[in-house]
Amino acid sequence: MLKLYNSLTRKLESFKPISPTTVGVYACGPTVYDFAHIGNFRTYNTSDLLVRVLKYNNYDVDYVMNLTDVGHLTGDNLGDADLGDDRMEKTAAKEGRSAWEVAKFYTDAFFKDYELLGLTKPKRFVRATDHIREQIELIQRLEEKGFTYIITDGIYFDTSQFEDYGALSDLDKIEQGARIQINKDKKNKRDFALWKFSPSASSGQGKRQMEWDSPWGVGFPGWHLECSAMSMKYLGETFDIHTGGVDLKSTHHPNEIAQSEAATGKKFVNYWIHGAFILVAGERMSKSLGNNYKLYDLQKEGYDPLALRYLYLQTHYRKELNFTFASLDAAQTALKKLWQDVSSWEDPAESDRPLEKDFKDYEEVFMEAVNDDLNMSKALGVMWELVKSDNPTGAKSRLLFKMDEILGLDIKNRSFEIKKEEGVVPEHIKEMLREREKLRREKRFNLADLARKKIEKLGYIVEDGKKGARVRKA
Question: What is the pTM of this model?
Fold first, then answer.
């Protein structure tokens, strides 16, 4: 049975879906004002693993991820998401293009990286700007129930009216305005914006590019509002699982819970899953330190995107991962070895030989690992046990490819590509290998070693195995 650590209850719990067959999962996605970095993608990788494990357990998964393309203010980094500049508008001014163009450019970049990392495509990617009406309607529901008030810069949620506010993160961890000026018009420092008024023409701040009419005046939605409005539209007023980074546990997710449950009178989400941060060589990732690496930074250095995915798998999602280039090197080496090993195996379709060890033994231990709160490092260990075992390779392939439905390491395709490439080794290289094998059988090992070196000088690698030698391009 699948067990997950629920951030709301702070316990490892057996997963019990609302429906016996279908699971609703909502993931907090990117704010598309910049490229997503490797810390962001670790969070999305955790959501991907969860979805894959659910599917492996025979659930149909209704997977939704948002794209924040308006309303996320820069004050969020300093403790108050209701102050500062809109990230989309700020990038637009910096890059000399419209906010809409910024959103499209970085959304497209996100989709490209998402695909390179082999992440499961949600049933729906949903944009905040496509759901302004739903967000306005949610504010109206809250207004009718007495949970809102209006001040000079917008409409706010009155947290004092919601009895269980802060249950996810504890009230003492919901801080505001630690390094910036606090909005003194708020009734309570933890109250948050539902709708922000656009600056007037007389303010001198200039007209916003992204703004909409509303019953309260021209403006734009608060950052927290979109996730409640969109998740409830597509998954219902109560759904199974909500995922995100641990940084969202302090304010964004408590605010989602408050406004959703205040509006509906129902429990919002049953299970909250939060992934931990990435450190880079022991330090926090940040632009100022120049260590907030993007996927293209790694690709420029010759790393395969799936090497990063392999690296993610080695550390439990609730533990901080210390990223170093040495650890990424090791991950890439291990992954390439895996692909290379499997490339020499029989095609599963050409072999009906069973595993000598009961087929289910490996799969059961693998499933115990992934169902234990996504213990992927243990699952990798089981996978390598299978790879290194003396079982028939065709049988190993069948199970390994099934395991890869969760691991997402593209083992079948990558190993086939290697096998295909090796199949076009020039005939004169094959002849040199045959001559070397003849020398080895005759125990003329010095000459055989010279033959191997000649082959290597021509750009090929000789690998000796139980079934004889083979050659591949270096």
Answer: 0.88
